[in-house]
Specification:
The chain is mostly helical. Helices cover about 65% and strands about 5% of the residues. The strands form two sheets. A two-stranded antiparallel sheet has the order 1-2. The chain has a two-stranded antiparallel ribbon with strand order 3-4. α1 packs antiparallel against α5 and α4 runs antiparallel to α5. It is globular, with a radius of gyration of 17 Å. The termini are far apart.
């Protein structure tokens, strides 16, 4: 899952509108930020596979240090610890981070270990079973969460239509036909894995920055009205 994680973050933000954006939105992608770094430096392993739909074009061969159940819990506490000056913010940040793992379970192809090097793996495998249709499923899943976020913010007299449009652009960019991962998967190793990791990390940090600007803008317009 990719843009679906941002939708989860925006739904949490809508529920806890007094909590700052960064702990929530970047928290929703924190596991993948760590994953991208670990893949790029060779601690975790992905394998190019042009048949891996809908938009990843890599098999996630070993991602136990951030996408196992145990490490997802650990990283969630780590992320929450950055905001311990306010226990409520810390709790929401940790929740947002852990929900990344929960949201991944339906999509991943049994590559989510219980703990590093465990023999037991989680993942319902919708990527592998549904192919392109799993991208459609993620769009529907995101649309439901974003509709909730839109309604909640509208009740607080804040219009987040530009945020919704931006998530729509992310969904289109990560379609099976336009995903940049396909081009990266065609590179020779180790460049394919290195650029995969870089794109994963940048793919969560840059959109978070853009969403932070959009939320600041919509909050400012709410005050003006």
């Amino acid at each position: 899952m990719y843009f679906g994680h941002f939708a989860v973050g925006m739904a949490i933000k809508a529920k806890y509108q007094d909590v700052p954006l960064l702990p929530i939105i970047l928290g929703a992608g924190f596991l993948d930020v760590i994953n991208g770094i670990l893949v790029a430096i060779g601690i975790e392993k992905v394998t190019p596979n042009l048949l891996a739909l809908p938009y990843l074009y890599f098999d996630l061969t070993f991602i136990d240090w951030d996408h196992s159940l145990l490490m997802a819990i650990v990283w969630s506490f780590v992320w929450g610890a950055f905001f311990l000056k306010d226990k409520r913010i810390a709790a929401v940040a940790a929740l947002s981070c852990f929900l990344h793992f929960v949201a991944d379970i339906p999509m991943h192809n049994a590559d989510l270990a219980l703990y590093p090097y465990a023999e037991q793996y989680l993942g319902f495998g919708l990527w592998g079973k549904w192919g392109i249709w799993s991208w459609i499923f993620e769009i529907i899943f995101s649309a439901i969460l974003l509709a909730y976020a839109y309604r909640q913010h509208l009740q607080a007299h804040e219009n987040i239509k530009w945020q919704l449009g931006f998530i729509g652009l992310l969904a289109l960019q990560m379609s099976p036909w336009t995903s940049p991962m396909k081009q990266v998967a065609m590179l020779s190793e180790p460049y394919a894995s290195i650029f995969h990791g870089i794109l994963v990390t940048v793919g969560f940090i840059v959109p978070t920055i853009i969403l932070a600007w959009l939320y600041k803008r919509s909050a400012r317009l709410r005050k003006c009205n």
